[in-house]
Design goal:
This protein is of the alpha+beta class. The chain is built from 11 helices and 10 strands. It has 3 domains: about 110 residues, Orthogonal Bundle (Butyryl-Coa Dehydrogenase, subunit A, domain 1); about 110 residues, Butyryl-CoA Dehydrogenase, subunit A, domain 2 (Beta Barrel), CATH 2.40.110; about 140 residues, Butyryl-CoA Dehydrogenase, subunit A, domain 3 (Up-down Bundle), CATH 1.20.140. It has a 4-stranded mixed beta sheet with strand order 1-4-5-8. Bound molecules: flavin-adenine dinucleotide.
Length: about 375
């Protein structure tokens, strides 16, 4: 294990190595045998069989954010698509885990933890994703429950998931204070959807709710408190998006270093050209800075330190932008071969792009950091 992870405990370093090996030897062959853009149930079951999902979905509380980051970096380094399958399953299950009714938890969590059922987190709507407090899918009272009407868009694992954590408007005009989360099984009457093909192989789609019935037991947390449920999940996951980016960036850097050492041009290996090696030195520095920011934000979250919002926003912002840059440089160093369809860098180039948009776009993260910088200043 290199000095890059010297700040981690021996257990965390062991977890990282295990995830890297599983990703390379077990999960990546399953990704290659699956169909891009669709849920890979064999892969999800393998994530369950090897205990990774159960580790994240332990009854009684959150996985440590640092452990979540370690798993995500390790998987991303050798198999970004299996990392995504792991992360989306955990994201969709987390609201049920921490706020679901006992009956919902008993019915769904064992199958989500062993990977035989698939979860999704349904927050974004066609009208927008950044401004969560303005979401409009309606949940109107109906007998002893609710009827859900409206649409969700860009929901990872939709429409192929088995259970959706759906955020709906229960009180008009109340902004963030009028949203409720529901656990909605895919088999519910009135629920339909379609796949949305993306630039990457990410399984994602749109959902239509046409008067879908949900009982009060299907509420995840209290009525009108769903915004808090969404934020609790996103606060845990935000630094770990940075860890996903770090894993991909490290893979790109490793490939670029190997290529620069072995490819000859003008009678020399590429590594003899300072124009190449200094670019890689900058990438290596930024990737390590990103890793440390991510782990510091996750550790602060685990310790319930004040200021974790700013630390998480910085980590996600910096890591996703550093990874985009790292993959771009690695492609430049490889030349044309990296753009061949199916090359690992071509896949990373498509995969990394979404990380600067989902779970808070880079501009939203900058907005959070800026707001925090000025928060405690007296008015001028
Ligand atoms: C690969 C992928 C997977 C996803 N998975 C899920 C999922 O599982 N569940 C889910 O609910 N959603 C998911 N999403 C949706 C994602 O969360 C939204 O795309 C995201 O929240 C942004 O919303 P939007 O696309 O509607 O853009 P908008 O909200 O319309 O924003 C467009 C752009 O405007 C800018 N902007 C917005 N607000 C501000 C601001 N305050 N200041 C400055 N600039 C701003 C940003 O550049 C932003 O990218 C996924 C998206 C992708 C790409």
């Amino acid at each position: 294990m290199s000095a890059q992870h010297a700040h981690l405990s021996p257990e965390q370093r062991e977890l990282l190595t295990r995830c890297e090996e599983l990703a390379r030897d077990v999960f990546e062959p399953m990704v290659r045998a699956g169909e891009a853009g669709h849920v890979n149930r064999r892969l999800n079951a393998a994530l369950g069989e090897h205990g990774l999902l159960a580790r994240a979905l332990r009854h009684g509380g959150d996985i440590a954010a640092v452990d979540l980051c370690v798993i995500r970096e390790g998987l991303a380094r050798h198999s970004p698509e299996s990392e995504t399958a792991f992360a989306v399953q955990c994201l969709g299950s987390h609201p049920l885990l921490v706020a679901g009714h006992a009956a919902t938890r008993d019915e769904w969590l064992p199958r989500l933890a062993d990977g035989t059922a698939v979860a999704a987190f349904a927050l974004t709507e066609p009208g927008g994703g950044s401004d969560v407090a303005s979401l409009g899918l309606r949940a109107e009272p109906d007998g002893d429950g609710f009827r859900l009407t409206g649409e969700k868009a860009f929901i990872s694992n939709a429409p192929e998931a088995d259970i959706y954590a759906v955020f709906a408007r229960t009180t008009e005009g109340a902004g963030a204070r009028g949203i409720t989360c529901f656990a909605v099984p895919a088999a519910s009457g009135g629920l339909s959807g379609e796949t949305t093909p993306l630039v990457s192989g990410h399984p994602i789609g749109r959902l239509t709710f046409d008067g879908v019935h949900a009982t009060r037991e299907q509420m995840v947390g209290e009525q009108d408190r769903g915004f808090g449920v969404a934020m609790r999940t996103l606060d845990l996951f935000r630094p770990s998006v940075g860890a996903f980016a770090v894993g991909m960036a490290q893979a790109a850097l490793d490939a670029a270093v190997h290529h620069a050492a072995t490819r000859t041009a003008f009678g020399h290996p590429l590594s003899a050209f300072q124009g190449v090696t200094h670019q890689l030195a900058d990438v290596a520095t930024r990737v390590q800075a990103a890793r440390l920011l991510v782990h510091a934000a996750a550790a602060a979250y685990d310790a319930r330190e004040p200021g974790t919002t700013r630390a998480s926003a910085m980590a996600k912002l910096f890591a996703t932008e550093a990874a985009t840059d790292a993959i771009d440089v690695a492609i430049q160093v490889h030349g044309a071969r990296a753009l061949e369809r199916g090359h690992m860098l071509e896949r990373l180039y498509r995969e990394v792009r979404g990380t600067r948009i989902y779970e808070g776009a880079s501009e939203v993260q900058r907005e959070i950091v800026a707001r925090e910088l000025f928060r405690d200043l007296p008015p001028a």
